[in-house]
Specification:
about 250 residues, binds 2-phosphoglycolic acid
Length: about 250
């Protein structure tokens, strides 16, 4: 069956020293009070090699926030999926709305990133979600379907089964505006129906679909209580061990 996962997305926050401190703190807190779900922290590239040996692998997985759409070579400033994997990281966030919006990542580019992540044994946490205007026009389902089709529909069922999805309505990210539990459940059920249509019910049922967007200790429980919401992708509230732990504790 699918796993419940709480994943942190540190974004462009924390110096190396601060990141190491946070990882250590989290490791200690979760070692004494074991989580009832999988826990992942996705950090800036430069933190990965220092953070992976600090955390207990049995409790905390580590991931990158992005990787290159090329295998290797003359791409100044880029970091490949193989490099991410060589740090001991097991996950990579792909298709985050900030990458799509600010760095012009298209479905085709993301398709390559997913391919390379899988080829290097990384688990992609693939983000999808509509912007505010699209929701106001009631186009969220068609937008999310197109994002899945555009980057993932080339995958076989076996390949797709290695992917974690994160539904992140863009209007809820970093805004304090959380989707209601009903809105989240409705979309997650829709996403699962898209997966079932393409790869079959078993694959759909086994896919972890996380919710992201202003998720915090005070609202995590009611969001995660929905049958199709399998945890969260957490930005702001993953930057403090106590807040992140508060969200993890939603799976009591
Ligand atoms: P937020 O970010 O929790 O700060 O809204 C979520 C995300 O962007 O993954």
């Amino acid at each position: 069956m699918r796993k419940n996962i709480v994943a942190g997305n540190w974004k462009m926050n924390k110096t190396l020293q601060e990141g190491i401190e946070l990882a250590k703190e989290l490791n200690t807190v979760l070692a004494t009070d074991k989580p009832k779900c999988d826990v992942v922290i996705c950090t800036p590239f430069i933190h990965l090699a220092s953070v992976t040996p600090i955390v207990d692998k049995a409790i905390i997985g580590v991931g990158a926030e992005n990787c290159a759409d090329k295998e290797s070579g003359a791409y100044t400033g880029e970091v490949s999926a193989a490099m991410v994997a060589s740090t001991g990281a097991q996950y990579v966030i792909l298709g985050h709305s900030e990458r799509r919006a600010y760095y012009h990542e298209t479905p085709e580019i993301l398709k390559e990133k997913v391919r390379l992540a899988l080829a290097n044994g990384l688990t992609p946490i693939f983000c999808i979600g509509e912007v505010k205007e699209e929701r106001l026009e009631n186009r969220q389902n068609e937008v999310v379907r197109a994002q899945i089709e555009g980057s993932l529909f080339d995958l076989t069922a076996e390949e797709f089964s290695k992917i974690v999805l994160a539904y992140e309505p863009v209007w809820a990210i970093g805004t304090g505006l959380t989707a209601t539990p009903e809105q989240a459940q409705e979309m997650h059920a829709f996403i699962r129906s898209v997966l079932a249509g393409k790869w079959g019910k078993e694959v759909a049922d086994n896919t972890s679909i996380l919710y992201g967007g202003s998720c915090k200790p005070s609202n995590a429980k009611e969001l995660f209580a929905n049958p199709d919401v399998d945890g969260g992708l957490i930005g702001g509230a993953s930057l403090k061990a106590a807040d992140f732990k508060g969200i993890i504790d939603a799976f009591a």
